[in-house]
Amino acid sequence: MIAGVGIDLLEIQRVKAVVHAEPRFVTKVLTPAEQAQLHTLHKQRYWEYLAGRFSLKESFSKAMGTGIGSHVGFQDVEIIDNAQGKPEVVRSPYPGQALASVSHTKDLVMTEVLLQTTTEK
User: Fold this and answer.
1) 43 noted as active-site residue
2) Among 1, 8, 14, 38, which residue has the fewest nearby CB atoms (within 10 Å)?
3) Domains along the chain?
4) CB within 8 Å of 22: residues ≥ 6 apart
């Protein structure tokens, strides 16, 4: 059963500007495992990944109905790409299953998170 859905749309350039103004943004938003994946990427793919993870975590918090900061922090959610490049929520405060999707153009990243319960009502 679906427990929550969250979507987010973000300009990649906005993330670039924030990183240039505040370099700690990367360590604030990404877990160490996510940072390790980020550092294997280069040029546009680097920025797509970083913007995508920020947006995915925003989507996750919207699906939870809390927003970032109130009950869900950036470090509480870890989303790692599997061998095929699919983002998988590997750690979160949600007790059920969390599914993630990310798509991007040259300028935008769009994400969606779907939270599912493991029991029927």
Assistant:
1) no
2) 1
3) 2-116 (3.90.470.20)
4) none
